[in-house]
Structure formats: C-alpha cells, structure tokens
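Listing S7. Sequence submitted for prediction.
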Amino acid sequence: MSTNTQLNIIAFPGAPNLPTFVALEQGFFADAGLDVRLTTTPSSVFQFEKFGTGEFDIAFTAYDNVVAYSEGQGAAKLDPMPDFRVLMGATQIGLSAVVAPDIAQATDLKGKTLALDAPSTGFAFVLYDLLAHLGLPRDAYEAVGVGATPERWASVKAGTHAGTITIEPFTSLAKAAGFKVLTQSGDLFPTYQGGIIAGRKEWVEAHEQETVAFLAAYLKGLRWTLDPANREAAAELLGAKMPEVKPGVLGAVMDSVLSPKTGLTPDGDILPDGMRAVLDLRSRYGRPQTTLTDIEKYLLLGPYQAALKQLG
C-alpha cells in the first residue's frame, strides 16, 4: 500500500463519530498510510446514492440500511445494486422519541407529522414500534422524510413537525431546549444494532490491505476514546468538532456515547441479538414485505478479524 492512500468516508453526523475524530487527530490513519477524508451526509438517500456509485469507499451507516438495500427495500433506487456488506459493528446506539413541549403522551401525536430520515429506513421503524407500544398505531400520524438527525431536530425545534427520533448529541440538545423524550429504544429493545461500518464487497476485496488498515486505525481511535483516562480530552475534541454541543450538555452526551448500552460498542463487535431485532422490524414494516432471519448474509468480517489480529 502506498503512503497516504486517500479514502473517502461518509457518515451520519453525531457523537458516534468521536473515534473517527480521534483517529484523525491522533494521526492513527496517517500512521497507517491513509489520507482519510470524512464527509457527513444530509440523509440516508444521499449517502447510499453516493456510496453506491463509488464516490465514497466506506460508510458509517445503520445496519438496517445494508439490509434494506440488499433486500430491494432501500429508499434510493440504485442500478446496478452494489453488494453492500457490514465490515464491523460500531454502536448499540440510543434512539429517543423527541416531541414538542406540548405533547404529553403518544396519543397527542394523532393527526400530526413526524420528521424522519425517510419513512422506510430502520430508525423510522424503531419509532413506529415505540409509538405502537405506547398506543399510537402507524396510521394515526404522517411520517415525513426530512433527512439526518440535525435536519430532523431543526424541523421539530422550529415547530414544523411534532416529533422525531434522535441520537446524541441531539437528544441532549432537545432536552436542554425543553423538548420531551417520550420513550427510548432501550425501553423496548434490550439490544439493537444501530451503527456499523459498511463497504461494497467488490471494492473491499480489491482493496483488502487498505480496508484492514482503516479498520485497525479506527479501532485504535475507538480504544483511545473508551479509555477513561482520555475522557476529558475526548470531550474537548467532541466539543471542538461539534460546537453545537454546549458545555452544559457535553457531560450527558459523553455518558451516552461512551456507554455500550447506548453508544459505542467496545472493539466494534457485532451484536447478533441486536441484528435480529433489526431484521424483525424490517420483516414487519419493510415493503415489499418479506421475512428476514439470516444475519450472516449481510456480513464480510474477514478484514475486521485481520485488523483485530494486527492490533493484538
């Protein structure tokens, strides 16, 4: 592998990007001979349109997105359809149903609009299921595709929509602004595979050395982030990279992102039970409807296993 091989990476905006920020700032990618260019996406449709055509080499995305496109249920129409694969886990991820201050209970959302990335993506399915368990059926409200969490939170804050589903730091920002959390994914799903690192099978197999190097450097950033000795420096870096995270909420955001229950997964392990939870939701809410049970068909873990071995 030549020195400073450029890799173009696309991720959703949010605190779970902290290990990537660390790997960039600490020089872990550069030490591995990589010039990593990180772009944040405004929506899952944008992400997979660009990822699918090869504009980006690796994506930090939801496990559900890989499943959706593999099963012909993706929000973007891609032709030809790449063979997207999960390269390693990233987050358990805590998802919160955030609503306007005047919403006291789920049934108050009847007849209102809710902001989502897209109505057919996995985090939308989590929200549908959370609300159904609170007594609000799917046909009682309108789901509107708005984009990634910053756009969704902005639309709810502005009063355009009555609620949405958020990750950190936007959950803590919403609470600090007086908005309510009706329920959280952990209330219903003991384990949920939220974020993963994905690649296109053909590209990964043609760039195995670069893929292993990238994953190993990311894992170094992850281990650094999760080391309690580095918490203060990690918080400072997150605040610098995401200035919307004010000091008053930074502690809560760090607590969430550092918890394996609501944030980063130690060593990027995949969560089989969490993946099965995703497949169950997609089997029930995805269209065209199909029953999904096999988590293995979406995985390509060889480079990850090689990266772990390299790190020792």
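Caption to Listing S7: primary sequence and predicted structure tokens for the chain studied. The chain has two domains: 5-92+192-311, 96-187. DSSP finds 13 helices and ten strands in the chain.
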